[in-house]
Predict the structure.
Amino acid sequence: MSEKLNVVKNFISMRYFKKFKTRDKLEKYQKKMLLKQMKYIKENSEYFKNIKADSIEDFKDLPLMDKKVMMENFNKLNCVGIDRDKALEIAINGEKSRNFDEKLNNISVGLSSGTSGARGLFIISDKERELWAGGVLAKFLPKGNILGHKIAFFLRADNNLYETIDSKAIKFRYFDIMKDMNENIKTLNEYQPTIIVAPPSVLLILAEAQENKKINVNPIKIISVAEVLTDEDADYFKKVFGLKIIHQAYQCTEGFLGYVCECGNFHINEDVIYVEKEYIDKERFVPIITDFLRKSQPIIRYRLNDILVEDKEKCSCGSPTMVIKKIEGREDDIFIFNGIKGKEITVFPDFISRCVIYANGIRNYKVVQENKDSITIYLDNMNEQIKKQIRSEFNTLAERMKFLCPKISFEKYEFNLARKMKRVERKK
Ligand SMILES: [Zn+2]
């Protein structure tokens, strides 16, 4: 009971009080919180015990980290004395049995559904969980009537993080993607959610079911999570469900990083995290994030593997936090081709997608690069005309960017909900 009360307290605080009217005020707050966090980790994390934490100037000298550093130094890094192998065992057991209640010293354990091999392990205390739930609600419950919502949450792996929200005022139902999707669709139709939270791959199935009149649900809000949402898919969902905006949550192992506001713009949660930008071209950058609230597993100068596209416009919703145009994909999935003059040429996922979606009648596709001179394109709708069109788009791109056009093969697209959907992927 007290847990729910805390969520409500945090919700109210985040929604109504921790709002910054100006950029200046936000930055001052960030500096204060960063310094506080630096002092905290110096005292509580063995990994950081030798850092300097006297002033905010010392921040730029802190070591950078990423998923690899995090996993290799897990035991030293975390501030609650949790052993990596023990935590992994609990998380893996939870996924196998689909029972996610086991905790370690009141700490919940989860695995990120990350890409091959490098799965991230995250731990979160009850208190952080309440903060998280309050923050999510503050950012996503629609304006005005905040009570009486029925949230449907589709996810690949649960952890008890998500059950924190369930209460009398707000109903919450978890749908396990790994279970029979026809059953899920039926249950969803009976449940009649007001808010649906799901990855784009699931939203595609729901939208098709709605289009074919297998279900009739009327959510007032759809929040896309866990996978990259392309503009085409977003447009399709808007059309089928009659919505103006498809919201997104930028939520990963490393925290709740961003959301789409009521104006439809993608904000980074700078009231919780500090972001440094590592530019990879004029407008694209890889974010390096520092969470100034996480106490059990510090996320400090953590380099994510994402490509974000900057937006210079200010948002009219009133929040002075950073706005991005979109998450374009993973840095690992930038394609690499042989240049005409020998040098390697890198091509961002967006350019690859565009070569495919310019062909008419394409909804589901995936482009995989196996090596520098061959790619495979998976399509759900294929004929000679479409293939010809796509080949010609790639030729044009290759000419323009001066790389040797790869050999292109075509295969049938198959839905596979067990894996994260990616439209553009480079095989390692
Ligand atoms: Zn906004």
